Every structure is written in C-alpha cells, then in structure tokens.
C-alpha cells in the first residue's frame, strides 16, 4: 500500500508549486487527509484533499472516494480576522474489479487522471460548462 507523503502540484499559473502536506494517514474507514497550509493562518482556511478506500460489491471490487474543498477567505480590514466566505467542492468515486489485471488498472488510472488534467476538461470546469 502507498505510504502517506506530501503532494506537490502546480498552481493555476502553471509554474508555482503548492504543497499539500499529509496531515492524517488513512485508518480503517477514515480517509487520508492533505492540506495546503503554507501562508494560511488556520487549518480551517486551507484547501483540503481527502482520499478513502474500501472493499465494495461483497469484496469483489475496490472503491476509492476523493473530495477536495477549496475555501475562499476574506480578511476584515478593521478587525484583521480572516473568515471563509465560500467553498468550491470537487469529488470523485472510482471502483474497479479485483479481477482486473494490474496493467489494466494502471492504464485506467493513467487515462482517467490524464483526462482530468486535460486543458479542455480543465477549461470546462473553470467555465462551469461542459464542452458544446
């Protein structure tokens, strides 16, 4: 099984790295949790990614669920207090049969994650509309 580690990705500018620090490893039915805490005053203001996994379909499949919460925060210029004013949420559900070959699973993951990283798919998400 993969071990908990920090995850480094690119910000929207395509050049700046942002580190999601592994804060809680998965345990039983509890998800692993990563937060991007650099420059954030409190954990509640940080973007957070969660990933859980479990057996499904009477043990015939593995199912993974991820959630990503990106808060928008504002600092009150009078009090200096920062509060979350809104949140964007993304989630995925993935499952595959335990009978699939590792090479088929590897290809599924490569293509699925590649589609999520594709410029067109990212543009659709940014615009809030699918391709027409």
Written overview of the protein:
This protein is of the alpha+beta class. It folds into 2 domains: 7-97, MS2 Viral Coat Protein (2-Layer Sandwich); 100-132. It is built from 2 helices and 6 strands, in the order ββββββαα. The chain has helices at residues 102-117, 119-127, and strands spanning 7-10, 17-24, 32-35, 48-56, 61-75, 82-97. It has a 6-stranded antiparallel sheet with strand order 1-2-3-4-5-6, with no helix packed on it. The model has no long low-confidence stretch (mean pLDDT 93).
Specify the overall morphology: globular
CATH class of the largest domain: Alpha Beta
Poorly predicted runs are none
Strand content: 35-45%
Q: Order of SSEs, N→C?
A: EEEEEEHH
Named CATH topology of the largest domain? MS2 Viral Coat Protein
Write down how many β-strands occur, each being a DSSP E stretch of 2 or more residues.
6
From the structure above, extract its key features.
alpha+beta, 132 residues, six-stranded antiparallel sheet, MS2 Viral Coat Protein, 2 domains
Task: Summarize the structure in short.
With 132 residues, this protein is of the alpha+beta class.
Helix/strand layout:
Elements (H helix, E strand, L loop, with lengths): L6 E4 L6 E8 L7 E4 L12 E9 L4 E15 L6 E16 L4 H16 L1 H9 L5
Antiparallel strand pairs: 1-2, 2-3, 3-4, 4-5, 5-6
